[in-house]
């Protein structure tokens, strides 16, 4: 049983009161009578889920097949082509930003923001002379691979922002984003 099916099963059983779990499992008709009686419904729900999973793996049921079919890609050829086109486009965007080959091992990237607050809604902040300051730190065991995977898998929207692609283009992992003056957009300066 794959991790996604386990997760769905756990989420369903987590919402059911313990006293109703046995009735639910009987309605699903995925366990034999002996297996239903072997479960201890007074145990924590995660233990019950693990036992149900162990029973369902030597005896697979039609219900596990239904869950797997729901998560399958659409079978219509036009939809499948559209999905593959989007997947290829995301992959190309990630390779354009982070390269095709192996990426250097980088564990952190830091962006420091120093700019004036611009906005109509808060006069308290927009009237101040001092800068608005903030720090954003990205950390991972392999940050560039993680960023490339986020774009290629569709978790992050492409194209990749120049602030992130600048890591590989400039060979740096510390950036200061400053205001260059009124009417000029913020620009990342490498340090």
**Number of E-type strands:** 4
Largest sheet: 4 strands, mixed
Instruction: Quickly give the structural class.
Output: alpha+beta
Overall 3D geometry? elongated
Report the helical percentage: 40-55%
Number of helices: 9
Tell me what you see in this structure.
The protein has about 190 residues and is of the alpha+beta class. It has two domains: about 5-70, no CATH class; about 80-190, Ubiquitin-like (UB roll), CATH 3.10.20.720. Helix content is about 50%, strand content about 15%. A four-stranded mixed sheet has the order 2-1-3-4, covered by helices on one side. Strand 3 (about 175-180) and strand 4 (about 185-190) form a beta hairpin. Helix 1 packs across helix 4 (about 45-55) and helix 6 runs antiparallel to helix 8 (about 145-155). The longest helix is centred in the middle third of the chain and has 22 residues, at about 75-100. It is elongated. The model is unreliable at about 180-190 (pLDDT under 50).
């Amino acid at each position: 049983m794959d991790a996604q099916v386990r997760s769905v099963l756990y989420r369903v059983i987590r919402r059911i009161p313990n006293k109703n779990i046995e009735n639910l499992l009987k309605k699903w008709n995925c366990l034999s009578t002996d297996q239903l009686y072997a479960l201890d419904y007074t145990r924590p729900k995660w233990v019950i889920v693990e036992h149900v999973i162990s029973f369902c793996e030597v005896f697979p049921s039609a219900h596990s097949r239904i869950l797997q079919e729901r998560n399958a890609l659409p079978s219509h050829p036009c939809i499948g082509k559209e999905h593959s086109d989007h997947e290829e486009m995301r992959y190309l965007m990630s390779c354009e930003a982070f390269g095709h080959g192996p990426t250097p091992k980088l564990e952190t990237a830091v962006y420091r923001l120093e700019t004036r607050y611009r906005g109509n809604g808060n006069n308290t902040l927009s009237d101040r002379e001092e800068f608005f300051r903030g720090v954003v730190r990205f950390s991972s065991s392999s940050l560039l691979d993680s960023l490339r995977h986020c774009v290629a898998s569709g978790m992050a929207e492409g194209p990749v922002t120049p602030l992130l692609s600048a890591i590989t283009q400039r060979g740096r992992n510390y950036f200061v984003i400053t205001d260059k003056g009124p009417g000029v957009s913020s620009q990342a300066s490498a340090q």
